[in-house]
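COMPLEX REQUEST
Ligand: zinc ion
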Amino acid sequence: MAAPTPTDSAGPRIDPATLEELRRALIARQEQVQAELDRLDSEMRALGADQNTVRGSLGNHIAEDGSNVTEQSRILAVTGDMRDILAQVSDALGRMDHGTYGLCQRCGKPINPERLEAFPYVAYDIDCQQILEREQALRAGR
Ligand SMILES: [Zn+2]
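STATUS: Structure written out below.
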C-alpha cells in the first residue's frame, strides 16, 4: 500500500518519532472532531424533533422559534468548521502516507516544525497561509 519513499526527494526533515507523535495527534483529533460532529448532529435532530412535536400545533409559525433558528444556524456553522478541520486532518494523514507531510502545499517549502506541532493539520507555511487568507478575503468581496 505504502509507496516507496523516493530517496532524492526534498522531503521535510521531521524525525520519525516526531512524525509518529504528530500522526497520533492527528488521529486523536480526527476522532475528537468526528465525535463532535455526531454530537452536533443529534443536537440538530433534537431541535428539529422539538419543533415538530412541541410546536406542531402552532402550525408553521416560527416567530417563537427565533432562538431555535439561531441555535440551528450556530450548529450548522460549527458543523461546517468541524467538517473543514476533518478534511484538513485526513489530507494531512494522506500526506504522511505519501511522504509529503510537512511541506507547504502551495510553495513546497518545509513548514516550520513548531507550527506543525501546534497545528498538525496545517497544509501551508505561514507566508502562504497569509496570502491565501488575503485572497479569500478578496473573494468574499472585502
Ligand atoms: Zn508556502
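REMARKS: The radius of gyration is 21 Å. Residues 4-9, 54-59 have pLDDT under 50 and may be disordered.
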